């Protein structure tokens, strides 16, 4: 089996022509129709073929590690070490894990035992949804493209990947490498911006996912397409008795990795009034440990993806009523925004108006943990809630009285490997659990009374269990 070929030429992002993504079906020239036909051929029903394609996708990353490192550095100013830890190495491991487990995940499961239906062999078949659309964001363009693809392929789906137009170099690299490594009848890359994405969303898909939540959901509703979306603005709740230095180090790493352009990055901090200064002092120490010569000169700090995102983040910072205690420097030419801590922020501040998606950390002083919970619950459910405490009761009080995609104590970012983008969870996201049974003819000797005409003599036997008996059990 070939693991593809590599080149060293600089990738150039070419948008897929709009005429190749039409509203109406037009036979072979249509990307989606080509994939639908290939999917219906049954090629992906073969577990071995799925494994082969998963392996090829793994080779696509493994053979081109250096090229992906350079592409991520060009797109995001991302340090090589950060790209390896956050995306590249984990995707190679993900390929290995998926390859080893495809057959187990895809195996038909027996339904829970029931004496009434046992003879009919009820089971749950694991079936592909069909042709799925993955719209990946710019901030982790490798992980959030390849991770879901492993699951989608393992589940037996054909895939159209629409990578972000902002991560130009990485998206162009995908477009170049996909045809060399993967079955081009089943897996395609479509590059482009809003017009191209809009064209894609006008078509019917068997599953769609991406970070442009409302746009995707609105378009998907027309076709009843299932979607996988996410929400964010993730708070950190600080117990004043916690180890502030540990909390500061982990929060700052979570906030400054990829220049804060992470959906699960700590977005703001809620800390009691009398502990705010202590936390800030700890953060200042960590700041200087991370960037002894300042973040602008550091080779360990990324840049903002685009001029538009730079202006958006800087505008929020310019409008804040809070006090900048460290950082605040910006350089438009380099799309550089220093890690910035802003104290005495209020819930109505500009920095709280939207997900920051940048290296700015607002600190909101609160009277109590209950006020912190009230602030969290006043907005949309966060993607994750971080709690820093050694007190199990404090942790339980926050988690029990809030809702979020994840609830993490004393850490940041590391739980990302456990979500719907990864492993069996990704497989399940792209799988339809199809009920099945096969009822033998002799069952009517037992259940024949279900057929009309109904008579007293042949009333079905129904056993009623009293609630108090169930409770007594």
TrEMBL record:
The keyword tRNA processing does not apply. Residues 33-413 form the Aldehyde dehydrogenase domain. Pfam families: Aldedh. One of its GO terms (biological process) is aldehyde metabolic process. GO terms for molecular function: aldehyde dehydrogenase (NAD+) activity. One of its GO terms (cellular component) is cytoplasm. Keywords: NAD, Oxidoreductase. The active site is at 230, 263. Belongs to the aldehyde dehydrogenase family. This is Aldehyde dehydrogenase. It comes from Rickenella mellea.
């Amino acid at each position: 089996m070939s693991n593809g070929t590599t080149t060293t030429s600089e990738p150039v992002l070419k948008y897929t022509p709009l005429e190749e993504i039409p509203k109406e079906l037009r036979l072979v020239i249509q990307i989606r129709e080509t994939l639908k036909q290939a999917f219906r051929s049954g090629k992906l029903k073969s577990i071995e073929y799925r494994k082969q394609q998963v392996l090829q996708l793994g080779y696509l990353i493994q053979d081109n590690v250096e090229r992906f490192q350079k592409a991520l550095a060009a797109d995001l100013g991302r340090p090589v070490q950060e790209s390896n830890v956050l995306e590249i190495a984990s995707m190679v491991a993900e390929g290995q894990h998926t390859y080893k487990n495809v057959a187990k995940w895809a195996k038909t499961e027996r339904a829970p035992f029931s004496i009434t239906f046992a003879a009919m062999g009820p089971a749950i078949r694991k079936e592909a949804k069909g042709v799925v659309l993955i719209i990946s964001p710019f901030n982790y363009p490798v992980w959030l493209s390849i991770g879901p693809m492993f699951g989608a392929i393992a589940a037996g789906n054909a895939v159209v990947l629409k990578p972000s137009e902002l991560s130009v170099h990485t998206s162009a690299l995908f477009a170049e490498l996909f045809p060399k490594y993967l079955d081009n009848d089943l897996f395609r890359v479509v590059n482009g911006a809003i017009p191209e994405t809009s064209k894609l969303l006008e078509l019917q898909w068997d599953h769609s996912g991406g970070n442009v939540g409302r746009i995707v959901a609105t378009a998907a509703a027309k076709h009843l397409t299932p979607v996988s979306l996410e929400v964010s603005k993730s708070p950190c709740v600080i117990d004043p008795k916690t180890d502030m230095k540990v909390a500061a180090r982990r929060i700052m790493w979570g906030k400054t990795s990829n220049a804060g352009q992470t959906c699960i990055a700590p977005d703001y901090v809620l800390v009691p009034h009398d502990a705010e200064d202590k936390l800030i002092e700890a953060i200042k120490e960590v700041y200087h440990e991370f960037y002894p010569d300042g973040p602008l000169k550091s080779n360990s700090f990324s840049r903002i993806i685009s001029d538009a995102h730079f202006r958006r983040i800087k505008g929020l910072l310019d409008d804040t009523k809070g006090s900048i205690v460290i950082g605040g420097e910006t350089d438009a030419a380099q799309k550089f925004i220093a890690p910035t801590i802003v104290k005495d922020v209020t819930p109505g501040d500009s920095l709280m108006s939207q997900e920051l998606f940048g290296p700015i950390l607002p600190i909101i002083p609160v009277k109590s943990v209950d006020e912190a919970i009230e602030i969290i619950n006043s907005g949309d459910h966060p993607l994750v809630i971080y709690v820093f405490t050694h007190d199990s009761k404090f942790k339980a009080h926050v988690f029990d009285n809030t809702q979020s995609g994840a609830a993490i104590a004393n850490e940041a970012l590391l739980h990302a490997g456990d979500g719907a983008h990864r492993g069996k969870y990704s497989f399940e996201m792209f799988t339809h659990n199809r009920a099945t049974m096969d009822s033998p003819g002799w069952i009517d000797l037992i259940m024949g009374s279900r057929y009309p005409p109904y008579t007293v003599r042949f009333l079905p036997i129904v056993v009623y269990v009293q609630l108090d008996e169930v409770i007594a059990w």
